[in-house]
Write a structure and sequence with these properties.
Strand content: 15-25%
Pfam families: MS_channel_2nd, MS_channel_3rd
Subcellular location: Cell membrane
Structural class: alpha+beta
Helix content: 40-55%
Membrane topology: Multi-pass membrane protein
Distance between the termini: 128 Å
InterPro entries: LSM_dom_sf (IPR010920), MS_channel_C (IPR049278), MscS-like_channel (IPR052702), MscS_beta-dom_sf (IPR023408), MscS_channel_2nd (IPR006685), MscS_channel_C_sf (IPR011066), MscS_channel_TM-2 (IPR011014)
Largest sheet: 5 strands, antiparallel
Number of strands: 10
Number of domains: 3
Strand order of the largest sheet: 6-5-4-3-7
Domain Mechanosensitive ion channel MscS: 109-174
Length: 279
Amino acid sequence: MEFLNQIKSILSYSIYKSSNINITIGLVTALIVAFVLTNLILKLIRLVVTRNLPAEDKNKFISIFQFIQYLVYIFVIMFTLNATGVNISVFLTASAALFIGLGFALQQLFQDLISGVLIIIDQSLHVGDVIEINGKVCKVEKISLRSTKAVTRNQRVMVIPNHMFLTEVLFNWTQNSAIVREDLTIGVAYGSDTKLVKEILLKVATRHDYILNTPSPKVEFSDFGDSALIFVLYIFVADAFSAPSIKSELRFDIDDEFRKHKISIPFPQRDVHIFNPKD
């Protein structure tokens, strides 16, 4: 009992004392213990969250985790001080206006950071993915915690705030596979040999270097149009970003083959009848 009283006396020894603050050895000890326990818990959480992440994404998450760690330490200090009898209302009153102002100023930044963390943890977006957002098709070049850098097909750099991936509709063309399907719509004149048209389209597609043979190209007789028989050629490519140039080359080849086989591509025509009531 005497030993416990001695320990209690040591812990209650004041290092600094004023009207509102009384810093004792027990308070300092409590802060040290709280810091050690908090540090161990945060390390365990970081280990669990980042264990399945790639090394590059793990480093990004660690940087934001350090920022969160500082905030947690502040709350631990405030809680420990309050639990040991220190009046912290003076600190809270003085810093309340500052915290409110910072909160409003950094609201957008926090949204971007949280979105960046979710992207990294969820692994819903990777460098090299071809995405479509707000009608723009681009390739992801870099993913950071605040924003994502992507390059469009005309080599313009887009810096996308990460919160847009949570608020806007995002199409990830290469999420499931790097192989994507593209299609070309071709109209030929009525009376054309439809089997020959199908044969030409498949031949042009299969001999192209950048079109995959597996899955193989397909031709669909889509519709009887107003001025043409409508065919759709489906192709599979491994590089979705270069699909427009591949489709352009196909159109040149299809036009050449149609000319050789005298298959015409019609243009819309309308018959205009003029009615004169006097006749």
